[in-house]
Design a protein that fits this description.
The chain is α+β, with helices and mostly antiparallel strands. It has one domain: Pseudouridine synthase (2-Layer Sandwich), CATH 3.30.2350. Helices cover 15% and strands 29% of the residues. The protein is built from 4 helices and 11 strands, in the order βββαβαββββαβββα. The radius of gyration is 17 Å and the shape is globular. The two termini are 16 Å apart.
Length: 186
């Protein structure tokens, strides 16, 4: 079995093929027969696990197992913890109720600049929050922040369980250590 941790850059598809010439995982990862364990949208960045271990992939992506995922989210505006509090209870979005999330306001973040800058408006401040979910539905974080009136401008998954992006830059990957693999299987 093979287990990889990859820092997916902005504007990269979470697949190995694309007939429209867009960047895919194949442009960064020359390892055959591994597949993404979960997804990140093309306009999202950060931690992505890849493997050829189908049962583990199912356990990590199925919401019933509740594996925590932490995102750093740059939102438009200056929300307070009180304004973000509904996220800690779960909120209705689209056709479902989200699970309770953990939130934290981040005074600063240490991330590389994105190749395509975030829109900048002189009179529109932005705020970074850490949002930890135990489920991962399509565009869920973006829908959650937008439903509270704070649209997501940049989204970076920084942690999955106890795995994080330490030591990597966008576009880099590494094999998981045997200890990390054991922890994933717990």
């Amino acid at each position: 079995m093979r287990y990889l941790l990859f820092w997916k850059p902005y504007d990269v598809l979470c697949q190995f093929q694309d007939d429209q010439g867009r960047l895919t995982l194949k442009d960064f990862i020359p390892v055959p027969l591994v597949y993404p364990m979960g997804r990140l949208d093309r306009d999202s960045e950060g931690l992505l696990l890849l493997s050829d271990d189908g049962p583990l992939s199912h356990r990590l992506t199925d919401p019933k197992y509740g594996h925590p995922r932490t995102y750093w989210v740059q939102v438009e505006g200056e929300p307070t913890l009180t304004q973000l509090a509904p996220l800690t209870l779960g909120i209705p979005i689209a056709d479902y109720q989200t699970r309770p999330a953990r939130i934290e306001l981040l005074p600063t973040v240490n991330l590389p600049e994105r190749p395509v800058p975030i829109r900048y408006r002189k009179n529109s401040p932005t705020t970074w929050i850490a949002l930890t979910l135990t489920e991962g539905r399509n565009r869920q974080v973006r829908r959650m922040t937008a439903s509270l009136g704070f649209p997501t401008l940049r989204l970076v998954r920084v942690q999955l369980g106890d795995l994080d992006l330490s030591g990597l830059s966008p576009g880099q990957w590494r094999d998981l250590t045997p200890t990390e693999v054991k922890r994933l299987h717990r």
